[in-house]
Amino acid sequence: MKAKRLISWGLSALLLLGATGCVDQHPEEAVQTGTGSTRIVATSPAVVEIMEKLALDLVGVPSSTLSETPERYQDATVVGTAMSPDMEILKSLHPDWVLSPSSLQSDLQPKYETIGVNSAFLNLKSVPGMYKSIQQLGEQFGREEQAQALVQEFETFYEEYQSKNADRDKPRVLVLMGLPGSYIVATENSYVGSLVKLAGGVNVYEGETEEFLTANTEDMQKRDPDIILRTAHALPDDVMEMFKEEFETNDIWKHFRAVQEGRVYDLSYDKFGMSARFNYPEALDELQPLLYGEE
């Protein structure tokens, strides 16, 4: 599969631009005014990374304990966490656009509407989705050249990468996303699931439309995964300790073939989060021996 086709791989509405509230009922005019006069806030570290790559200025950035704010944005106002930005601070910045991941749209868009700011939601649920969003941002903010360079970088990488596992048997994978005190199944529509798919793995919940599912362990066992991957939504140390206890104390896990064969692996939190990042090649490198064994 060519990378250009991969970028549109089962994805639509990758960047959702819309005027929310009454600040500006003509968002296309605001975007086309150029970067110098356009006030933009990015509310997640993944979006900040994209804006830096596109050489776009920001007046607001998120707080994060796991990633550093790029030097370019050291003077930007901190607006709170990705999942819970401070609406009063956002409003005080008078942004033309607030950019957030589409995974948080249902929660954040009503709040943005309440304070009357324009918002855009980027699809960062997969690497192709990220690059499609980059293309659209480049078009909207006059950064076509930078966007095309990034897309070309991905195409070059993937054209080389796609043949790596083409002739190998595709392992069937169960992906568990842990939260403090619980866990859910990550489908191929989630970011971690999309990485498994890029690497050639088959999600045992293939064909589902949601990013995450609540499934019982009996159903998981019936799907007979070759491999079980575990990652964390937040508080990775606590979550991995939870997984360890769950697999040691819940008897059903000992009946999973993947457990019996010792093919249960914990993924790095910094590479397998909720949103696509530019460190996806490192994530794929981490998956390679887990899915196919040591080279």
From TrEMBL:
GO cellular component: membrane
PROSITE patterns: FE_B12_PBP, PROKAR_LIPOPROTEIN
Annotated signal sequence range: 1-21
UniProtKB keywords: Cell membrane, Heme, Iron, Lipoprotein, Membrane, Metal-binding, Palmitate, Signal, Transport
GO-annotated biological processes: cellular response to iron ion; heme transport
Residue intervals of the Fe/B12 periplasmic-binding domain: 39-295
Protein name: High-affinity heme uptake system protein IsdE
